[in-house]
Specification:
65 strands, 31% helix, five-stranded mixed sheet, 39 helices, 1471 residues, single chain, alpha+beta
């Protein structure tokens, strides 16, 4: 699961601690964190409290696929919270140890054996020096994992086995010592200023010494003169001046040295693979201060071993332990610590006390001589942590009664269609339990604990010994029976079960070893093979067994080595098996013959060329236009999901002709279950822990799909979810009218509603006719055999509600608001948690951090007092009282003190789900109440009137909406203050960059939640906090100094542009790149300073970190592409973040967004994203483009001075050209296809622009209309097709915005009436005005007295602010401006017969009559002359200021007009 989806992991750890086979350890410089890496690939982060010597496992990092070989801190500066890990297959990761997020992942071709972080001189960041199975030293940037430079050897290059870095006194460079496996010492002198990126630095000195395969090399920090080199068999001291050997000591019998370090200038400590360390005093010739230094060693002057560091009980270790020595500077000298982690999972820490020379002499005098034993100061392990927990951490099968020592869970499989979890165990049994009910039983309080049949398990027994693997074939392909469950065991058998009855269907025993894996063949195989399942056994065999025929089809059993992978070539009927030795066996599936065996390069080529087609051929069902086909298939297979999909598509297609047979929904989440349960084992012998993945987007889609399916189009329109009637009305006006047009407009919507309701009724009757009921979750009562039966059809709606109930209950902040808690329990249906929840966090590349149950975010000394009723506290055992206390503190404040990333994800989840349930006509999570609500919704379609039940239901819905609103307000606005009031001082606020990247999330509810949280967080920061944020992110903001594209990009045809890219010559690429370098510079101005740097990149169009990167170009490595993509992604985040700050706080001069450089750069970046041509690097419909559209609309007053308004409006209109066909309203919650989402966002941005700056919008559109009319007159000569222009295609959207402005911005409209009339007449087809008046066609504009239409003469007159009258001749399609008054025209009106026109100016107090005379025989230019003028009574100033009380002109006859004043007085005038 990638970071694109909002996913919340929760862990059920179980009663047994996970195995922790430690192979690398790290103690951070602040001595507060211990990091342990294991041979199974996991990393555990431990909190260490030095005063109390308490070590607590905090979280487990899951991501590496092989043994973690080495660990290092990313920075040596105090407070650094980042570490680097490297595994034996070349994986390198950068982790944030505060929350376990994986920040960077890199798969290197080199395997590192040692990593050393070092702070070079005059370099702000640390550098990571790595050695391993390659002949050089690689130096990485620890945060980006990019190789900066390398240290290579000219003489005898070989693998570097040990390295040490030091800075000699009075020098400005670093000296790097390297020792090769063949015994050559290399010396490099490195200065960061002289290093050129990517170039190799060669050694300055080389010398051969007698030290082969060295494990470590350490130079003494106290004198920088002596060097300790450790090999497996001995350790040696060398003089760093000439690398001459000073002494040599062999290893004790039966042990091997693993490493060592200097305790002081004359003491060393060495550790062995036996799990203990030895402390030696060096001979005098190895002590720099001694006169005998560098002399030949005397026989009596040997290294003296006086101390042994070992655990209290020395155990035999299967694998060598991992060691680290660290000296921490303190005021009194140095604190010397030795850390050890072993294969048993034990972490030991020794505090090594100094032994003075006097004490050493006394020890030597004691006979018999006894070494000093150093006992461990700290000795802890995960197993000890688990044993100390009472009660134990919850497991998924803890509800089974009568099992004090239950068998381990060895295999797990979640069945989404049944909502059940299958668990295979060590005793051969398979347990099937309802997943959500089981989770609720273990994690939540509630009435369900008193239900006898709650989470009742089904037990399948048939295996003799542990169950190794489970497979649900129907979940992989629909061609298998949905009742069959397949299991493989250690007893060599494969069992096929009927899940619904619990019977054993068939048992295969065809292989001579335990079954380790079960697979499904691809759907392109032959029909016989398609009915088979594939099994892999430990006897190195692969079998194909037909479930339909119940017999063996193929047994491939001639493999000599364990099987690694199984692949398929269906077109050649080949089964391809890859073994551990690299050999590949090719089998014919139908005949069972071994076709050939390949080795070496040929084997690798065959494996890489295999096309598994494991996901099957792409189905064409999604493209079928007729929903009846979906319905038929759903009914035939009794698939409720397909039936619901067909119902939704059927309703969507009959919403109106405006949809044009196009489904606008994004169906990627259609079959995604909101809950997935995955087994987790850190070692193959461990019991399964379980990770619950709650997919928030899938949950919201399921909830809204069920809700919208119950609504008719009329209800959708009433709830403002769709705007079909408004868009249809506008759409009809912009197209040519037929004689029956008026009747069609009146009848379209009613037909749409009737047809939709008919289809919905038909689908409902079809569903009920096949016996599928919503309440089919009840057990089957047929056959009273005492066995638990599972219903074949799950109530998906009930399961979705249960999933939402579990998730919301676990995330809600219980205890901060008592009255809200009561509302949540009694009205909204939330349940209080029983235990502190172990959450997880997904990060880059799907890597996870899982919180350990042994850790609590609130320290014990900061715990508030227990808040339990006295009688309850007396009844409960002490351990349960303590558990309830920990749970209360965790849910109220501890939950929000874990990490900022987790706070962000959980707040997004809570707010988006609460808004979804509030928008669902005030839904609750109580199943009975939700059923009543949906029944009421269905019954209210036919019933009319306000009966008492309707009133009661409405009141109840108001209370529910208030509850969800209060919950949203708590977690959006009030949470930091409430957590602080509870006693917390370490609330972790949400991360603004994560919220910015979800500003235009695919899911509308998550999008709105991210926007609300980001706006709240920016406000909470205050001006100073926002200033810091701007300074941090403005460094990533690109600046575009060249003019923006002169043509509006065409978004509708971007697929064609992307499918046929033109090949570029290398010289062309260089020219393009150089021109792009000149175009894009980083020019960040923040008041007084300007930073300019080249940045030849465009912002990354995909904000999620999991998006597939483009292929490297010539001369580029994959690492270069990844690093460039990360930089582009930061640019995109900076644009959005600064755009939000500018849009909501930019008008304040303190924010730096006044008329300055930052506002100009941000506006140019937003405009570039909108106007940039569609390309492979910048597709047409991406979240980044949508964010730019949205932010341009929201902050238009800030960006307007720097934008070409015409280009921006035309680009947005181009996206909105299909609004009438694509976009529902902004309240519509289901995910849309990218084109529809962009269309909806652009339409909303246009509305924001028009509302914020009506004059700018109207005048710009009027100019574009005038330009369009000019081109239309010369279109034939210019050979232009104006039907493809933006202004022609977007008439509907323009007319919608004008209608909106007329209703909401009347004051601005009155000042620009002529421009408004130009725009309206451009959009309305002239045919509509032939037989009907303007007040019938577009009544909104006729509400202004400055506009009058004469149907007889087909003229429209509009009064202008400059005193002129615009006379529109509809027959001739032209306009004439008539100078009429010296002041603005207040009202105009045609006489009933059309012969006279009256105009009135309130400011001038003058009324005039006008008459138009045509030329002879109707030829020539018509002339309009003033026939009479009257002076009128002046209007009071208070009336002039009110646009709603303007005088009006009303004709009472063909020659008499009445001037009606606002106070009701009338004045008659004759023509």
């Amino acid at each position: 699961m990638g970071s694109l989806n909002l996913v919340v992991p929760v862990v059920l750890w179980g009663r047994e601690a996970p195995t922790h086979d430690i192979c690398s350890v790290l103690l951070t410089r602040d001595v507060k964190t211990v990091v342990t890496g294991t041979r199974d690939g996991q990393i555990c982060i431990w909190d260490f409290d030095p005063p109390s010597l308490k070590l607590t496992a905090r979280c487990l990092l899951v991501g590496h696929t092989s043994s973690v070989q080495c660990l290092a801190q990313a920075s040596l500066t105090p407070g650094s919270q980042y570490i680097i890990s490297s595994s034996e297959n070349g994986e390198m990761c950068t982790w944030d140890i505060r929350d376990g997020r994986c920040l960077e992942v890199f798969k290197s071709a080199n395997v590192h054996s040692s990593m050393i972080a070092y702070q070079m001189l005059n370099v702000p960041d640390s550098r990571l020096f790595c050695v391993g199975n390659y002949p050089e030293i690689l130096v990485y940037d620890p945060m980006t994992l990019e190789v900066l430079f390398s240290l290579s050897a000219r003489i005898e290059p070989d693998w570097i086995s040990a390295v040490h870095i030091l800075r000699p006194p009075r020098r400005n460079d670093e000296v790097v010592l390297g020792l090769t496996t063949s015994g050559w010492v290399k010396v490099w002198t490195v200065s960061e200023r002289e290093v050129r990126p990517g170039e190799a630095i060669y050694e300055h000195e080389s010398k051969m010494i007698r030290s082969l395969n060295a494990l470590s090399m350490v130079c003494c920090d106290y004198n920088q003169r002596t060097v300790l080199i450790v090999t497996q068999n001995d350790w040696q001291i060398y003089d760093a001046g000439d690398f001459s050997q000073l002494c040599k000591v062999s290893v004790p019998t039966g042990e091997r040295w693993m490493g060592g370090d200097f305790l002081t200038a004359d003491r060393v400590i060495l550790w062995t693979d036996f799990g203990q360390a030895y402390i030696y005093k060096l001979p005098t010739n190895c002590i720099v201060e001694s006169r005998a230094f560098h002399n030949k060693q005397h026989e009596g002057d040997q290294a003296f071993m006086y101390g042994i560091v070992k655990p209290q009980h020395l155990e035999h270790l299967v694998n060598a332990p991992a060691w680290q020595y660290i000296a921490i500077p303190v005021s009194s000298g140095a604190e010397k610590l030795l850390l050890r982690g072993d294969c048993e999972g034990q972490v030991m820490l020794w505090r090594l006390a100094d032994v003075t020379d006097h004490q050493l002499v006394q020890i030597q005098q004691v006979q018999p001589f006894r070494c000093i034993n150093f006992a461990p100061t700290v000795n802890h392990s995960l197993m000890k942590s688990w044993l100390a927990m009472n009660p134990s951490p919850v497991g998924v099968l803890d509800q089974l009664e009568g099992e004090k020592n239950p068998p381990r869970i060895t295999a797990s499989l979640f069945l989404p269609l049944q909502g059940r979890l299958a668990c295979g165990r060590e005793d051969g049994s398979i347990i099937l339990v309802p997943a959500t009910e089981t989770i609720m039983l273990h994690l939540l309080h509630g009435k369900h604990h008193h239900y006898h049949n709650w989470a009742q398990p089904m037990v399948l027994r048939g295996h003799q010994g542990r169950v190794n693997c489970l497979l649900y074939p129907h979940g992989e392909s629909n061609r298998y029976d949905m009742a069959h469950l397949v299991s493989g065991g250690i007893d060599f058998s494969i069992s096929v079960w009927d899940m619904y009855t619990g019977n054993l269907v068939h048992r295969f025993v065809v292989q001579a070893g335990p079954i380790v894996q079960l697979l499904v063949p691809p759907p392109t195989c032959t029909p016989r093979i398609q009915n088979c399942i594939c099994s892999v056994s430990e006897d190195h065999s692969v079998a194909l067994m037909s479930i339909k025929e119940r017999k063996l089809v193929l047994l491939a059993s001639q493999h000599l080595y364990p099987i690694v992978t199984v692949k398929w070539r269906p077109q050649h009927d080949f089964l391809i098996v890859s073994c551990q030795d690299g050999s590949v066996y090719i089998w014919q599936m139908e005949t069972g013959h071994l076709d050939r065996v390949l080795q070496g390069v040929q084997a690798e080529e065959v494996i890489s060329a295999c096309d598994e087609h494991s996901q099957g051929v792409s189905s064409t069902d999604a493209g079928l236009a007729n929903p009846a086909v979906h319905l038929f298939r759903g009914l035939r297979h009794r698939n409720l999901a397909a039936i619901r999909h067909a119902a939704q598509r059927g309703i969507q297609q009959v919403l109106g002709e405006q949809n044009n047979q196009q489904d606008i929904h994004d169906h990627s989440k259609l079959r995604t279950c909101p809950l997935m349960v995955q087994g987790l084992r850190t070692h193959k012998q461990d019991a399964n822990s379980h990770v619950l993945f709650f997919d928030i987007e899938a949950l919201i889609v399921q909830l809204l799909s069920d809700e919208y399916a119950l609504m008719s189009p009329g209800t959708l329109e009433a709830n403002e979810l769709i705007q079909s009637s408004q868009y249809q009305r506008m759409n009809v006006l912009t197209h040519p009218a037929s004689p029956e047009g008026a009747k069609k407009i009146a009848g379209i919507l009613s037909k749409v509603k009737e047809s939709a309701e008919n289809v919905q009724t038909l689908i409902q009757s079809k569903v009920e006719s096949v016996g599928i009921r919503p309440t089919s979750l009840t057990p089957d009562k047929e056959g009273n055999d005492g066995r638990v039966h599972i219903s074949r059809h799950l109530d998906i709606t009930a399961q979705t509600l249960q999933i939402g109930q579990v998730l919301m209950s676990l995330l809600h902040s219980w205890g901060l608001d008592t009255s809200l808690d009561t509302t949540c329990e009694n009205i909204l249906g939330l349940l209080k948690p029983r235990v502190p929840v172990s959450f997880g966090l997904l990060s880059k590349s799907g890597y996870m951090s899982l919180v350990m149950p042994t850790w609590h975010p609130v320290p014990h000394n900061q715990m508030p007092p227990i808040n339990l009723p006295p009688e309850l506290e007396e009844e409960l055992p002490p351990e349960m009282v303590q558990l309830e206390h920990l749970t209360q503190v965790f849910t109220s404040r501890g939950h929000w003190e874990i990490s900022s990333a987790m706070t962000t994800h959980h707040l997004l989840t809570l707010v988006s789900l609460a808004n979804t349930l509030q928008d669902m006509n005030a839904a609750t999570l109580i199943p009975e109440q939700e059923r009543r609500r949906k029944n009421h919704m269905q019954s209210s379609k036919s019933s009319q009137g306000n009966n008492p039940q309707e009133v009661e239901f409405a009141q109840q819905q108001v209370v529910i909406k208030q509850g969800w609103s209060r919950l949203t307000a708590l977690h959006t606005v009030l949470l930091p203050g409430q957590v602080a009031q509870s006693g917390s001082t370490s609330f972790t606020p949400p991360m603004v960059e994560i919220l910015a990247r979800r500003w235009q999330d695919r899911c509308q509810e998550v999008r709105e939640a991210a926007q609300a949280l980001l706006k709240t967080e920016l406000s909470r920061m205050g001006a100073e906090g926002r200033k810091v944020l701007v300074e941090e992110w403005s460094a990533h903001l690109p600046s575009y100094t060249d003019p923006l594209p002169t043509t509006v990009p065409t978004y509708n045809n971007h697929h064609e542009a992307m499918q046929s890219p033109k090949p570029e010559h290398n010289s062309t690429k260089q020219q393009n790149s150089s021109s792009h370098n000149n175009q894009t510079v980083n020019n960040v101005g923040n008041g007084s300073h300007t930073i300019v740097s080249e940045r030849p990149m465009e912002p990354h169009p995909h904000l999620d970190e999991e998006h597939e990167e483009e292929e490297p170009m010539d001369g580029e490595s994959h690492r270069d592409v990844v690093a460039q993509s990360e930089g582009r992604r930061k640019q995109a985040t900076a644009i959005i973040l600064l755009g939000v700050i500018g849009a909501y706080h930019g008008q304040d001069s303190q924010e730096g967004f006044g008329l300055g450089q930052l506002a100009m750069q941000t506006s140019k970046a937003l405009a570039y994203l909108l106007l940039a041509p569609v390309s492979s690097k910048m597709p047409g419909h991406t979240p980044l483009r949508r964010a730019a559209m949205d932010l341009i609309g929201r902050g238009f007053p800030v960006w307007e001075p720097y934008l070409d308004v015409a280009k921006v409006l035309l680009a947005l209109l181009d996206l909105c050209a299909d609004t009438d066909r694509l976009a529902p309203s902004m309240k519509y919650g289901l995910p849309l296809i990218p084109e529809a989402d962009s269309c909806r966002t652009a339409s909303n941005a246009l509305t924001c622009i028009a509302e914020a700056r009506p004059p700018a919008f109207i005048t710009t559109m009027a100019r574009e209309v005038a330009r369009f009319n000019t081109l239309q007159q010369n279109a034939q000569s210019l050979q232009m097709n104006l039907h493809n222009s933006v202004l022609y295609r977007a008439k509907t959207e323009i007319l919608r915005i004008m209608d909106y402005l007329i209703q909401h911005k009347r004051v601005f409209i009155m000042d620009l009436m002529v421009e408004v009339t130009d725009i309206v007449l451009h959009c309305v087809d002239p045919g509509h005005l032939k037989s009907r008046g303007l007040n019938e066609v577009f009544p909104a504009i006729c509400g202004f007295p400055q506009v009058s239409h004469c149907p007889h003469t087909r003229r429209i007159a509009t009064g202008a602010k400059n005193g002129s009258i615009a006379m529109y001749e509809l027959r001739a399609s032209k306009c004439q401006m008539i100078p009429a008054h010296q002041e603005p025209v207040t009202a105009v009106s045609f006489s009933p017969d059309g012969k006279y026109l009256t105009s009135y100016s309130m400011m001038e107090s003058k009324l005039s009559f006008w008459q138009t005379s045509a030329g002879m025989f109707g030829l020539g230019t018509s002339q309009t002359k003033c026939t009479k003028s009257y002076s009128t009574i002046p209007v009071p100033e208070i009336v002039r200021m009110n646009p709603q009380r303007l005088p009006k002109l009303v004709w009472v006859s063909n020659r008499t007009v009445v001037l009606m004043m606002a106070d009701g007085t009338e004045h008659r005038f004759n023509a």
